[in-house]
Amino acid sequence: MNPDRFHLTLTSAGRPVMHGWWPVEATARGLLPVWVGSWGELPDARITLVDEETGETLTEWPEPS
To answer: What span, in angstroms and rounded, lies between the C-alpha atoms of 44 and 40?
Structure first.
């Protein structure tokens, strides 16, 4: 199990603000609403979950238009 596989990133106004890595996708996904609730009001906030093993973006908030 790769402890750094699922990478959650918060950016504000295009700059990185916070990162977190988890070995289990469900844990990282479970933290997404927590991050949105805590930091979603930052200017131009964007939260992205990436599978570092495959390079796939699993989800983004807000959803791309």
So the answer is: 9
Cα 41 to Cα 60: distance, rounded to the nearest angstrom: 15
pLDDT of residue 48: 97
- Alpha-carbon distance 34 to 40, whole Å? 9
Q: Which two tokens stand for residue 57?
A: 């973006």
* DSSP-assigned letter for residue 63: P
Q: Kindly tell me the sign of the dihedral angle through the C-alpha atoms of 10, 16, 20, 25.
A: positive
Token code pair at residue 17: 């603000």
pLDDT band at 36 (very low <50, low <70, confident <90, very high): very high
Query: First and final CA of the chain: distance in angstroms?
Result: 34
